[in-house]
Prior knowledge:
Elements: H1 4-13, E1 21-29, E2 52-53, E3 59-68, E4 72-78, E5 87-92, E6 97-100, H2 123-126, E7 135-145, E8 148-157, E9 173-179, E10 185-192, E11 195-207, E12 225-226, H3 230-237, H4 240-258, H5 294-302, E13 308-317, H6 319-324, H7 328-331, H8 337-346, E14 352-361, E15 365-370, E16 381-385, E17 388-392, E18 397-401, H9 410-413, E19 422-431, E20 434-442, E21 467-472, E22 478-485, E23 488-499, E24 518-520, H10 525-532, H11 539-550, H12 552-566
Parallel strand pairs: 18-24
Antiparallel strand pairs: 1-3, 1-11, 2-3, 3-4, 4-5, 5-6, 6-12, 7-8, 8-9, 9-10, 10-11, 13-14, 13-23, 14-15, 15-16, 16-17, 17-18, 19-20, 20-21, 21-22, 22-23
Helix pairs in contact: 1-5, 4-8, 4-11, 4-12, 10-11
Amino acid sequence: xxxxxxxxxxxxxxxxxxxxxxxxxxxxxxxxxxxxxxxxxxxxxxxxxxxxxxxxxxxxxxxxxxxxxxxxxxxxxxxxxxxxxxxxxxxxxxxxxxxxxxxxxxxxxxxxxxxxxxxxxxxxxxxxxxxxxxxxxxxxxxxxxxxxxxxxxxxxxxxxxxxxxxxxxxxxxxxxxxxxxxxxxxxxxxxxxxxxxxxxxxxxxxxxxxxxxxxxxxxxxxxxxxxxxxxxxxxxxxxxxxxxxxxxxxxxxxxxxxxxxxxxxxxxxxxxxxxxxxxxxxxxxxxxxxxxxxxxxxxxxxxxxxxxxxxxxxxxxxxxxxxxxxxxxxxxxxxxxxxxxxxxxxxxxxxxxxxxxxxxxxxxxxxxxxxxxxxxxxxxxxxxxxxxxxxxxxxxxxxxxxxxxxxxxxxxxxxxxxxxxxxxxxxxxxxxxxxxxxxxxxxxxxxxxxxxxxxxxxxxxxxxxxxxxxxxxxxxxxxxxxxxxxxxxxxxxxxxxxxxxxxxxxxxxxxxxxxxxxxxxxxxxxxxxxxxxxxxxxxxxxxxxxxxxxxxxxxxxxxxxxxxxxxxx
Length: 569
């Protein structure tokens, strides 16, 4: 029987764009699906359409799926109550996504489709690597599904080491059948307290059917709504009300930053410019792109399991190099808010260095102490004991409910997010006296923004930059992660002095001295930022207050926009 490392390898390497198959698609749910679903739940058209209510009160639907080479696919589904003329379809001809609905008198127009060139038809089945972050997997044994050999696996939601897994899901267990050869899911059943929530499965699966080789089978019907190509879709991504809200937020943040003196890296007169380190081990060169061996993928998966970890963390950021790598079209998008933020962040910028001591003991139990942060705008300690979170500044402490550590340093301790990127390499080596593995990290086309401390810019959108990772072979944490902007080293992050000794629970609490000013978190991005920024008063304070009032609704839209870019809620 296949073990967990082999199953992790199957899930990671599954690539539906290389498949040629036909199958019947069936879904069952405890309630009628809504038209707007999260990206993880969305199957483009199938589950977003109304389903037929059954005698038992549940809803069911079916469809015919055809996948051809080069990312081509077509999914046809009957619309309940429409009879023979009620067949709707959606697909991709290899260049454009398209959607067609039968005309409905007085009904809504065809649903708009945002498609990049390789968007999957049923992501919950065809993109199984989403189970490799935020879930504990258990191999149940061999099964047969859709007439094929498969492996039954149970996935239980977990909070990864630093809380990167969502705590809010409509289910508490997923049971899947993993195709023993292809790695895709043949069946996925989500349950809550033992009751079925959603079932999605493939039946009557045929590999390499003759019709899959005919490009005409994937052509859109006349009158279809057509999506953009990948390049066109990227431009459309930075337009519309969501982008307008994000651009407005960026402009407001840029205005606040310009009123705060001595930002990190904006060298004060008596401050010596920092320099980026030189790689003591050369990054991997692009090779054949072969995925790492199963034991390396298993190492990354297990890095998210709750454990004790202590380390010294260091980061260097060259914001000028990062900003220079941003495409001019994106920089100029919107009404100039992003350009204003970039100007505020990079004006007079030197390389910024951050040193800290990180202590982790499972989800929402962490402490990050910065050793040298002389500016009042910088927090000196961020700590969470599982119930409350403290952010300590020189003249005040902000207190709020427990929350994951969002600082990029956190992602060095929990590397399972790398399983959602394209990885190659994995050779054994010794780095600074510790056994390790070296990987090359490449963004996944259409995969959304980078997770972790990769090459990103302030909107969160990813820059397609080469990244090199060195993974500790004992803990799975990242001993080094470096990203380039073109040929320039832009971000260097590292962990050193690794310890796995258990921590005292009291270590994750902050004892606020009497007389210290305490500020409660409001949850409002602008209000909380203004509360800890020194010198934000007078005109700047009024501008900040105006930004809060003016963007109260826009912040929600901006968050939804950025969440959609990230591909998760």
